[in-house]
Amino acid sequence: MKKKYRLIVDILIIVMVVLTTFASVNVNASAPYTTRTVNRYGEVIETQGAYDPIQNIQEFIKDGEVETFKGPKDLFIDSEDYFYVCDTGNKRIVVLDKSWTYVTEFGSSDLIQPNGIFVRDEFVYVADFGDALDNSSGKIAIYNFDKENKVATLDRTYSRPSGALMEVDDFLYRPMKIAVDKNYTMYIVSHGSSNGVLLVNSENRFLNFFAPNSSTGTFIDLVKKYFYGENENVILTKKIAPAPENVMLDDSGYIYTVTQTIVQNGLGDTLKKVNIGGLNFYSNEMIVSSDFVDSWASHHKTIYALTAGGTISEYDIEGNLLLSFAGRRKNDDQLGLFQSASAIAVASNDDLYVVDDTAGSIQVFRKTEFTFNVHNALELYISGKYEESKGLWEEVLRYNSMFDLAHKGIGMAYYLERDYTKAMEKFEIANAKEEYSEAFWEARNIWIMQNITKVAIVLVGLFVVVIVVSKTNKRYHYLEFVTGPIKRFSERPKVKSILVMFKFIRHPMDAVYYVRYDKRIKLYNAFIVLALVVGIYLLSLVFTGFLFTDVVLEKTILLKELTKVILPIVLFIVSNYLISSLMSGEGSFKSIAINTMGSLMPIVVVMPWIILVSNALTLNEGFLYYFPLVVMFMWTGVLLFVVIKETHNFSVKKTIVNFLLTALMMFVLIIAIILLYLVFAQLFGFFVDMFKEVIFRG
């Protein structure tokens, strides 16, 4: 019995061990960071995991001994997956193969402070910062690496490039990073070089500065420059452009630079994609970081950019942020996080290798199924194979239904299939306005071709009916039962007083006269027009064509939108009344309010038509939308000037002064409102805290 009991217990233990083993195999530890992307509104949001950290390499075996890196600053991976590690602290370059097996090392007797490395054919270029105390010790060391014999020999070294500009300015040459093109022209980042990357030929002759960053100045600097010009006696603050931090080349001949400088709202140009002519193909307001340290171009035409804090950002060919992940380590040693990142490189199998110089390690990231589909779909998309990429994009949407690039890719597939309606739906989701415009153009043309005859018949028929009815009604008056009540209704005193507001459109001076002397025109006329203006503004938010609005309805706050319209109008009326009273203006508060609202009548009359037309235009026809919009606001501005002038019986000069002082008073009132809000907010907080104190301690 005991033996049978013991056998059952042993079997149960074995089963539990087996289940535990299988469970540990199938469960993956989640990454210690979140992956982010950008939605259609330009907001950075969390998305599906894109890369998993799989390994942290801190050592390698050399001649049977364990070796470690010391402060590595750069890493290069060639086409055969040889790893060239710039082991700065040990003053050497370490070469490892794709299995991370030691191959060779070199430079310990030649290099002082190697910071950057680039491999072109059999040559290994090393940017040596040199001795911090010796300004002439910076150099480029070029090694010839024989892979077959696993031997690297020093081919030549280049100190400061020759050239008049280098010698005249006594240029301080401190090479930090280097890239080399197919012609062996060197692109060198020298520490503190605000003029940009040094372009140096294969004979070490300086050619030019390349891809400089722009300097920034304040409004005060511009004023000084305007008044003082080039006067050397006037000391102006010198604005120095930030120096590039790193440089990289891709197989297409594009040069990528990263810069560490201040960015506003996460937007800037600290990552650039530059052609040989110096033209930046990326937007000056792309989503970037202020502390980029390195970049790498993948064969998928995507670009990886690395920050000093360890955040890795991946961009598409146009500079749109696809994914952002990893980051800085806070406490424990966590795989996927860094103390201080310094370099990034990508192997042929798409694994990412990121150097942590402080920890002396290299971490490896592998892409997930989600990213695998994104890359494959992106390659087809870039090649113009939209229909072939459709299935992959649909698979991407299975992971993340709001991945905008996938919607755009599927939209392009529908476009080629001539299903323009579905294409427009996808482009609208992705906020791809240019593509939406093209699809809408095609869909509209098809509709016109199918319905042009019907539309022409209807229009001609309506025209004939209107002419016939107009002619016959003058003789037989059979529409009297309709026109009679309308005429009698419009003759009512209150209705007539309201209709006076339409006189402002064509005869503003007559309208001001009516407001001044006709006692039947009440203040509620102004409120009626205000309600109409607010209503039309809200209609514009909802019904303006997709191509001509950036409004996000689900994120729109009604109270905020009402404030945008009502507050400026109320502030203007109040401010103008206060200023005009001091300037002996003849207008009362009532007349100022009514006349001001009367000047807004062009908005009431024209804006609904503009909203309607916006839904029938493409981007190429945007002039037909923006021109009447500009005319409407100019018309409104002229009417406002005229009615204020006539209301107060001012001269033109005095009216201009009145407007300037009114604007100043509006600014003062805004400041006063803000101060009052802060005071009442503090008082409210004080009473709330006091109430809580009484309740909880009572």
Structure write-up:
44% of the residues lie in helices and 22% in strands. It is elongated and about 110 Å long. By secondary structure, it is α+β, with helices and mostly antiparallel strands. The strands form nine sheets. Strands 23-24-25-26-27 form a five-stranded mixed beta sheet, with no helix packed on it.
Concise account of the structure shown:
The protein is an alpha+beta fold and 698 residues long. It is elongated and about 110 Å long.
CATH architectural category of the largest domain? 6 Propeller
Number of strands: 30
The biggest sheet amounts to: 5 strands, mixed
Overall pLDDT metric: 86
CATH topology of the largest domain: Neuraminidase
Distance between the termini: 71 Å
What name goes with the CATH superfamily of the largest domain? TolB, C-terminal domain
How helix-rich are the residues, as a percent range? 40-55%
Report the C-alpha radius of gyration, rounded.
Answer: 36 Å
CATH class of the largest domain: Mainly Beta
